[in-house]
Design goal:
The protein has helices spanning about 5-20, 30-35, 40-50, 75-85, 100-120, 125-135; strands spanning about 55-60, 65-70. It is mostly helical.
């Protein structure tokens, strides 16, 4: 199951904010939007939800912007997804007593557990480290 656009945009903004966290810099919404091609109004909604969820603080004014409240090591991807999407729901149609549905539901439960485990053990710092690793120039081999 891939991330929704809402969670994806929120995580992209959080990676930028995690990068700025060490310096204490404030990031403005417009800068994040320009850097990643994210619609401004949509990102504002994500950042507002993250602020209300206790992940960000904001400062108003021309020199204002957003900052992480906690360190990137303390913010799990699972917590961000729950903040932006809410708790997952399993409302589905069909006869749930049917054996085929039960088999699929068991598989779905295993997938959910594996995903939850991975997202709970992955932090914003991990995503930032992966991004930074990909920024490093790759060695060129000549023959």
């Amino acid at each position: 199951m891939a991330f929704s656009a809402k969670t994806e945009y929120g995580l992209i903004a959080l990676i930028d904010l995690a990068d700025a966290h060490g310096t204490g810099a404030l990031l403005q919404t417009g800068d994040i939007c320009r850097r990643h091609g994210i619609p401004l109004r949509y990102l504002e909604q994500m950042l507002t939800a993250l602020r209300k969820g206790g992940f960000l603080t904001s400062i108003r004014g021309p020199r204002g912007g957003f900052q992480l409240v906690r360190t990137p090591e303390e913010i799990t991807i699972a917590a961000v997804e729950i903040c932006l999407e809410g708790e997952p729901s399993n409302e589905r149609q069909g006869d749930r007593e049917d054996l085929e549905f039960q088999v699929l539901m068991a598989l779905d439960q295993k997938l959910d557990e594996a995903r939850a485990s991975l997202l709970s053990s992955t932090t914003l710092a991990d995503l930032l480290a992966e991004r930074n690793k990909r920024l490093q120039p790759q060695p060129m081999f000549y023959i």
